[in-house]
Amino acid sequence: MAAPSNSMSGSGPEQKARFASNTTSFQKKSRSNFISIPGTRPSVQNGQLIVSTGVTSLDYVIGGGLAVGTLLLIEEDKYDSYSRMLLKYFLAEGVVCGHSLYIASAREPPDEILQELPAPILDDIASPRSEEAQGKLGDPDGQDSMKIAWRYQNLPKVQTALASSSRFGHYYDVSKAMDTDMRQAAKCTSFYLPDEVTHSSAAESSQMNEGYRALLRSVQGAIHSQGFDGSTPQKSRNVLRIGLQSLGSALWGDDICCSESPGHAAGLTTFLYGLRALLRSSLSVAMVTVPAHLVQSRAIMERVTKLCDTAIALESFRGLDTEANPLYKDYHGLLQVKQIPHLNCLVCEVPDSKDLAFKLKRKQFTIERLHLPPDLSDTVSRLSKPDLAESAKLLSSGCGSSTPGKKHLDF
């Protein structure tokens, strides 16, 4: 009788080779395609490479940070103090992360803006003791916890501070200037309009004026010469942060702030269209401030907003009657999110609260949820006894109108 075949046995070399080839047919998907650049990370919502604006609460509001290749528009406040501060935060974050900078201004030399960058706080703001204290305050089972009604116990607590669970970006002290050695170590390209504009370019036929044409050529040259568009190989990849101050003002030669029917109505929009094309094809991100309260035509401002990826507006209380209002004593202005980009998804990341306010503390600029405290003072207006009597008389006459001649209701 023939011996049984050993085909089911695993001891043969052919069987082992076949088993090894079957086990390696499925490979684990790797995430090596993400670009590793200091100061960047992939977005949780859409996987886009993002950078921090320098203000952690602003990063939380716009969906985690600024996506590389996008444009952030900031509508300036009336006196251009807080929008200028956001621009300095944006540039300071680039210095700390080792990014390259590009600064353009028509009002002041870019070197003066660099000298006013806030100093970074390298240590953690929240210490373990403070976190432990906050945990005890938020513990409903603690011995000293406030006893509230059961119907309000499970409602979400009001949190004014805006912050994500994972820290991204750095903190800065606006009361101190950045160290000179750290500031000089950053690679920065400057564009000061009075020194850059030449009269020879005035004869060119374009919808953009002389200043915008020179600025767009300068930005394109900086992106190409430093290899941010991939034309020149870089030893280590980096991000270019572009900060443009007060575009659309008369200092740039634009007249959209001077007339409702300006001669260069499409100058700023044409420039933003070209700038956005440069950003899309390079490792760069831009922040642009525009004096929206001075633009005469609302249609032009709406087109400017649509050409930007992210748009926020700052409304300062300074010089207004709202500044003396005791309800807003803890804030310095309101912040409105006008536009958030749709990147690699059908819907955008909408902030959970639209009532936002900002305030400048002694050392830090923060954005919080607008939460008005209850008025518990003794000066609250109440209905007086004559008013209550008059209201009761009107109510009784209204109820008795259907049954005339009867003082009491019969049940």
Automatic annotation (TrEMBL):
It holds the Pfam family PAXNEB. Pathway: tRNA modification; 5-methoxycarbonylmethyl-2-thiouridine-tRNA biosynthesis. GO terms for cellular component: cytoplasm; elongator holoenzyme complex; transcription elongation factor complex. Keywords: Cytoplasm, Nucleus, tRNA processing. InterPro entries: Elongator_complex_protein_4 (IPR008728), P-loop_NTPase (IPR027417). It is found in: Cytoplasm; Nucleus. Residues 1-32 are annotated as: Disordered. Residues 1-12, 20-32 have a biased composition (Polar residues). Belongs to the ELP4 family. Component of the elongator complex which is required for multiple tRNA modifications, including mcm5U (5-methoxycarbonylmethyl uridine), mcm5s2U (5-methoxycarbonylmethyl-2-thiouridine), and ncm5U (5-carbamoylmethyl uridine). The elongator complex catalyzes the formation of carboxymethyluridine in the wobble base at position 34 in tRNAs. This is Elongator complex protein 4. It comes from Conger conger.
